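Morning, I've got a small favour to ask if you have a moment. It would help a lot if you went through both lines with me. I owe you a coffee for this, so here goes:
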Amino acid sequence: MTSGANLGRIIMADKMPSSSESVHLSRRIDFQTVNRAAMGILPALLGRWLPDGKKRGHEWVARNPKRSDRKPGSFSVNLNTGRWADFAQADARGGDVISLAAYLAGCSQYEAAAMLAKMLGLAGDAP
């Protein structure tokens, strides 16, 4: 569970850090822990990453910011599982928040996990 201070930092973040921002961790990244923490605040993250989206049932439906998408509908994220897909593109889909962050930031899943860990206060004493 994330502390109030960490949650405030995440909610106040304007966007997902770009892949050009260097994030170094002194130890291995526990992908499961990062995903679990990100799932706990997924609506807040999606509100920042996909601000034109709206909650529809158990889905966050938005325009895909990686392509010319005129209206929301084909790009969605399941708020219960973190699975996401752009049904207009066969290769734009993933099974968790880390893969979504990697897709949106245009970086590897490792880099996305490191950025999320830092955002969520899970990076420990990393520089």
Residues 1-26 have pLDDT under 50 and may be disordered. The two ends are 23 Å apart (CA to CA). The chain is about 35% helix and 15% strand.
